[in-house]
């Protein structure tokens, strides 16, 4: 099967992408609107882009007409936000936050999340999360679509403070089993971490020797 993305609609390309790039970690993002309300929304187009300094990217698709979603608009205006890791304990309420709440309404408050102050940013954190990363905006890049109506905003931010629940942290590492992260799959499906295995990264000389046997 060969498919040229230019021969089909955006929705069909979206289905191929989310069915191929998986599992995808979920960034649960809090921001503040102009009235000081806490906006909270999940995004599964999310990854690390740098370790020095630590930087993360979140892609926020735009609404029809190239209109920015609340999260991207709030970040562009305030330049601060918090990214939370989604886990088995909070995924139900996080999913509820993906509903199309009106801009003046706080999703976090509506679904029953508790907010606590940020340390280095003004944006509150969600108490019912095990990992929270306070971020400051590095840049927003309009992506895809047309110049007048971009398809999405690629939000790149620097992590200025990590908050990690004490029992997850051991000598600089995070215990994946205790974190119980949840990722997005295709369609409406989510997934937990299943069977895991380790593989050491080989050196070239070692790899070359194995090819001779």
Structure write-up:
The protein contains 6 helices and 14 strands. With 213 residues, the protein is an alpha+beta fold. It has a single domain, classed as Pnp Oxidase, Chain A (Roll). The strands form 4 sheets. A 7-stranded antiparallel β-sheet has the order 3-2-6-9-10-5-4. It has a 3-stranded antiparallel β-sheet with strand order 1-13-14, with no helix packed on it. The longest helix is centred in the N-terminal third of the chain and has 11 residues. The two termini are 37 Å apart. The model has no long low-confidence stretch (mean pLDDT 95).
Précis, in short:
The protein is an alpha+beta fold and 213 residues long.
* Strands side by side in the biggest sheet: 3-2-6-9-10-5-4
The CATH architecture comes to: Roll
Number of domains: 1
Instruction: Compute the number of helices.
Output: 6
Note poorly predicted spans: none
Q: Look up the CATH topology.
A: Pnp Oxidase, Chain A
The ordered H/E elements are HEEEEEHEHHEEEEEEHEEH
Q: Tell me, what's the shape?
A: globular
Largest sheet: 7 strands, antiparallel
How far the N terminus sits from the C terminus, by CA atoms, comes to 37 Å
Q: Structural class given helices, strands, pairing?
A: alpha+beta
How would you name the oligomeric state of the polypeptide chains in this document?
A: single chain
Q: What's the β-strand tally? A: 14
Rounded to an integer in angstroms, the radius of gyration calculated over CA atoms is: 19 Å
CATH homologous superfamily label: Electron Transport, Fmn-binding Protein, Chain A
Strand content: 25-35%
Protein name: Flavin reductase (DIM6/NTAB) family NADH-FMN oxidoreductase RutF
Keywords: Flavoprotein, FMN
InterPro entries: Flavin_Rdtase-like_dom (IPR002563), Split_barrel_FMN-bd (IPR012349)
GO molecular function, one term: oxidoreductase activity, acting on the CH-NH group of donors, NAD or NADP as acceptor
